[in-house]
From TrEMBL:
Its cofactor is pyridoxal 5'-phosphate. This is Branched-chain-amino-acid aminotransferase. GO terms for biological process: isoleucine biosynthetic process; L-leucine biosynthetic process; L-valine biosynthetic process. It comes from Arthrobacter mobilis. It catalyses: L-valine + 2-oxoglutarate = 3-methyl-2-oxobutanoate + L-glutamate; L-leucine + 2-oxoglutarate = 4-methyl-2-oxopentanoate + L-glutamate; L-isoleucine + 2-oxoglutarate = (S)-3-methyl-2-oxopentanoate + L-glutamate.
Length: 367
């Protein structure tokens, strides 16, 4: 789909003073503050049963007026995306592989019986929002403007069928260095009580429901001193799937990278696919295959697994120092100065922030 729409602009006053904004940008954390505007496109199915997108606009940020019977509030018909806009040293603003997010957004839309959005409209909506809110892009090390496109079923109707009125929106939130300052390996919790996805379910769609379903496991994790949860596929020899919102990689002692194959349960991470490419560029072997929790345990015990890390847009690459489980813990070896995950992380972040060459043409200019 290459269809485009013209966005109109209704601009607001700044919601906070320049001094308040500067204070926020100095230490934004993640997901706490939002910019002055939002991009919106409406979708409606007409009396003849033909659906179409219209009324593309940038408007002031604020609450959404919605009927209490709106389908999203009852049946969770919702999808989202997550990406970042980076300010480069020359002041220009770029985002990373937005076409890949647009394609994934439409894959999620099909699974949740929501309408597909033309890819051009998806990328334009980011550009339109960033154009009016670029004062909100932080410039600290590892900082960026987090962009959150999402689509919700707004039709007021309690019958169970795909909604005929839908709203697509983008909000933006300044984000600091995800882990603040230094990057140290994190412990994660192995959930054996809960699964994240099932075969034929919504595991590879980026939908709110998957996150709602992961929260009980996250509470369990927090009770064990962990912020993130690893999920397995109990119907497939306890194959490792992914974390609640990040994909996972193993670096073997011989330099081979192993990551779970995309089997329908796992999210097609843009960071995951970029790491695979950068590893291959370095001549490393990459295997997308099933890896079970037993192979992980034996790999750690036998010294075959050298590094374990998680990846996603928010935190880029996070080394996993320890997997805590109901019956004991598996501790990863300490990371050496030449750790593969840290080197790939530097390169990937360098491409995104404009200090490393964009050899694959992954960047798109937004402003
Ligand atoms: C968004 C997400 C990821 C990471 O995807 P990226 O495109 O790399 O940000 C991984 N797993 C889940 C479940 C996600 O929702």
């Amino acid at each position: 789909m290459t269809e485009t729409l013209q966005f109109t602009r209704q601009l607001s006053d700044h919601r906070v003073s320049a001094e308040q904004r500067a204070a926020i940008l100095a230490d934004p954390g993640f997901g706490n503050y939002f910019t002055d505007h939002t991009a919106v496109v409406d979708y409606k199915v007409d009396a003849a049963g033909i659906g179409g997108w219209s009324n593309a606009r940038v408007e002031p940020y604020g609450p959404i007026l919605m009927d209490p019977a709106a389908a999203v509030l009852h049946y969770g018909q919702e999808i989202f995306e997550g990406m970042k806009a980076y300010r480069h040293a020359d002041g220009s603003v770029w985002t990373f592989r937005p076409e890949a997010n647009a394609v994934r957004f439409n894959k999620s839309a099909v699974r949740l019986a929501l309408p597909e959005l033309p890819e051009g409209v998806f990328v334009d909506s980011l550009r339109e929002l960033v154009a009016v809110d670029k004062d909100w892009i932080p410039s600290g090390d590892g900082a960026a403007l987090y962009l959150r496109p999402f689509m919700i079923a707004t039709e007021a109707f309690l019958g169970v069928r795909p909604a005929r009125e839908v709203s697509y929106r983008v909000i933006a939130s300044p984000a600091g260095n995800y882990f603040g300052g230094e990057l140290k390996p994190v412990p994660i919790w192995l959930s054996t009580r809960y699964a994240r996805a099932g075969h034929g379910g919504t595991g590879e769609a980026k939908c709110g429901g998957n996150y709602a379903a992961s929260l009980a496991a996250q509470l369990e994790a927090e009770a064990h001193g962990c912020k993130q949860v690893l999920f397995l596929d109990p119907t497939n020899d306890n194959a490792v799937e992914e974390l609640g919102g990040m994909n996972i990689f193993f670096v073997f002692a011989d330099g081979t990278l192993v990551t779970p194959e995309l089997n329908g349960n796992i999210l097609h991470g843009v960071t995951r696919s970029s790491i695979i490419q950068l590893a291959k560029d370095r001549g490393l072997q990459v295997q997308e295959r099933k890896i079970t929790i037993d192979e992980w345990r034996e790999g750690i015990a036998g010294g075959r697994i050298a590094e374990v890390f998680a990846c996603g847009t928010a935190a880029v690459i996070t080394p996993i120092g320890e997997l805590k489980t109901e019956d004991g813990s598996m501790v990863s070896p300490p990371l050496g100065a030449d750790a593969v995950c840290m080197s790939i992380r530097r390169q990937l972040l360098g491409i995104q922030t404009g200090v490393e060459e964009d050899i694959h043409g992954w960047l798109t200019r937004l402003a």
